[in-house]
Amino acid sequence: MKRALIFLSLLAIAGSAVAENYLLSTPNTSLCLTAEVGKPLYFRYYGSRAEVDDIRAAGRMLKYDAYPAFGTLCDAPYAALVKQHDGDNATKFAVEKVEQTTLEELTRVSVWLRDTVHPNLAVKVNYSAYNDCDIIKINTEYFNEGKKPIVLQKYMSAVLPIQSDNCVLMQLDGSVKNECNESVIPLPVGVHNITTTTASRIAQYHNASFMLGLDGRLDETACPVIAGTLVWMGNSHFEFYNTLAARVPTLFMGGINPAASDYTLAGGKSLATPEMVFTYATNGKGEASRSLHRWARRHQLLDGTKSREILLNSWEGVHFDISETSMVDMTKDFAELGGELFVVDDGWFGDKYPRNGGSTSLGDWTIAPSKLPNGIRPLIDLAHNNGMKFGIWIEPEMVNTTSELYEKHPDWVLRHPDFEPTYGRGKSQLLLDLTNPKVQDHVFKVVDDLLSQYPDIYYIKWDNNMSMHNAQSQYLPKELQSNLSVDFTLALEKILKRIRAKYPEVVIQLCASGGSRLNYGFLPYFQEMWTSDQTDAYHRVLIQWGAMNFFPSNMLAAHVGSAYSKYTQRLMPIKYRFDVASMCRLGMEMVPSKMNAAEKEYAARAIAGYKTIRPVVQQGDLYRLVSPYEGKRDFTSLMYVTEDKDRAVLFAYRHLFKHDMSNIIIRLQGLNPDAKYAIREVTPEVEGKPVAIDGKVVSGRYLMEEGIVIPELVKGFTKNAPLGEVRAGNDFRSVVLELTKVN
Questions:
Q1: Topology classification of domain 311-398+436-596
Q2: 716, 538, 734: which is closest to 654 by C-alpha?
Q3: Please, what is the average pLDDT of the chain?
Q4: Looking at 27-105, which runs of residues are DSSP E strands?
Q5: Which of 32, 476, 675, 735 could pair with 44 as two cysteines, CB 3.0-4.6 Å apart?
Q6: pLDDT band at 244 (very low <50, low <70, confident <90, very high)
Q7: Burial class (CB in 10 A: 0-12, 13-18, 19+), 209
Q8: Domain ranges of the chain
């Protein structure tokens, strides 16, 4: 990596310091700061790419403290609150020096601030701008340069003043099996917070991401938008101040959740806060999403530009009822359908306490002889002999009280010595105390032992089914208990770095009761995430749509479940289920032998069809066309387009049937207006009978301006339902079309 370090110390000229402007630019955006020794660091601008003279001439130059501290303006929002060893918490930051670093992929400006009241405290504020995508990152580093400890009571990563008094906010809210619901509201006057508190399953209720429409609306294509997300595996806190003040009507702050997280920083020590990632788009939230996806694939997500395999996971099919016979049958059946990877989920382990339910065995990562008498080697070999790869499930951060590990090390769990602990899954699950170095070694050893013994394991599903209910460490001293949330997260990061240093190639999926860990902080260590335990396909449309506001499709695992959803008690046809899962990384979550012959025939064609469009779906630019959250909500459409605009894939879903429905016009986006595109239905419902538009050639301009009609989407089913399925009425129809540029 090319690296050049330029040290820019702001010198006094003629007895007075000189204020300098620092402009950081991406291909289409700019951020401007002003630094002067002895003065506060001032935030001046964030928006479309511009020069300082243009910003100033247009009247867009702000002058707002870029990192305000509690002390001199106690009635104003502050990003820093630090208690010194003598109890004093008054802080006044002033610029000390500026450093500029130029890397191959980005430019960074780091501004050192010194507390003029307590010179032992220094804070470095880092601003980074990428050269190949419209992403700017901000974070801070705290330094205690004294000998006595200080306590960080609030230590935000980033402050962003926003010149709009008419913002519309979108955030993602939900719960297990109902993640990533879009919530859109006008930003209320006053203070609005987005806060996560679960410490372990941090995205269970709220996601550490947001979008702001800046002119009173938030749409896909035609409004200025700021999007942000926090790169942090622990608790987060976002503050939006809508003050209606003329100077800075709206103010954003984001970072680690300071609640119950006073962080004691010993003398000579430092703490880096997580990075806050921002993008600015002039053409709606679709453009903002594409910028985040592009950055994720290129710079954050492990193996972000590689294709993901089509897998079958055993969980929804057999749950804990793992046996050699059932795993052999599922492997063979999936291979016949064209599958690429078979994953044995929960239920394979435990010697003294075989894993037959959620109440035992976590921590005892040995094969259960009663379930797999010949171990997993025959299953690995079987997968390979059938042209597939092999994966396995673990939950290494957890323990059950009924386990050999807990019998040996009851002091390794998080719990208060004076209270009965709150248990998780199975009413016996507890979270291991990752702040304990011995526990860190244990978690690493779980993975190391498995991969050392079976180096041809290709894939691991890493699960987490418990939040931090018992926020008390048996390892940390009493005076450092409030460090637990942060130190736990830093310890997890340390473990993951250690695993990746030894096993950089193994594919690891991150799961947390579904999508409860959807966060960019995990992406350097995991190739994909399990989006939700909800396998009802219609519900999945809503979840996947919400998640893809911030996260790229190739990191979101989506599986085809059974026709009957036990969670919603809905019946859905196999084509609809496959088409919904195909908008992300395709997989299956069922027992193939329970499918009838027509369903198996269709599944094999659908898997083969997905392989033809996989590069476009997993690496293309996303364009959301019709939202399931807006309008009549009976129809949804989106598409992916390759960077060269030579190929595209269109997904269209009709969820609700109404008698005598009118045809739906779908206007496409992202194509080359001067090109012509041949249209092909990827997997017709019945082989040899594609929709009417199949085989047609249409110009990109017409497809975008006037759109297409697919009459088959609004029709009811025939009396004799295709694929031999039982259907719940006429709901749930779908079409997937590939568009290829005609030379």
A1: TIM Barrel (3.20.20)
A2: 734
A3: 94
A4: 29-35, 42-48, 64-65, 80-83, 93-103
A5: 32
A6: confident
A7: buried
A8: 3-300, 311-398+436-596, 623-742
pLDDT by residue (tens digit) across 191-202? 999 999 999 999
**274 secondary structure, DSSP code:** P
C-alpha closest to that of 535 among 357, 313, 342, 334: 313
Nearest in space to 220 (alpha carbons), one of 666, 645, 627, 651: 627
Spatial CA neighbour of 738 closest among 695, 689, 687, 701: 695
Please spell the DSSP secondary structure of 717-732, one letter per residue. Answer: PPSS-GGG---STT--
Residues sharing a CB contact under 8 Å with residue 644, sequence separation 6 or more, in sequence order = none
Assigned CATH for 623-742: 2.60.40.1180
Give Rg (Cα) of the chain.
27
Q: Give the pLDDT of residue 691.
A: 96
Q: Answer yes or no: are the C-beta atoms of 286 and 220 closer than 8 Å.
A: yes
What confidence tier does 633 reach under pLDDT thresholds 50, 70, 90? confident
Domain 3-300 has CATH 2.70.98.60: yes
**Angle 597-619/574-581 helices, nearest 10 degrees?**
20
Confirm if 73 and 64 have CB atoms less than 8 A apart: no
Question: What is the CB neighbour count within 10 angstroms for residue 724?
Answer: 14
**Residue pair 647/377 in contact by the 8 Å Cβ criterion:** no
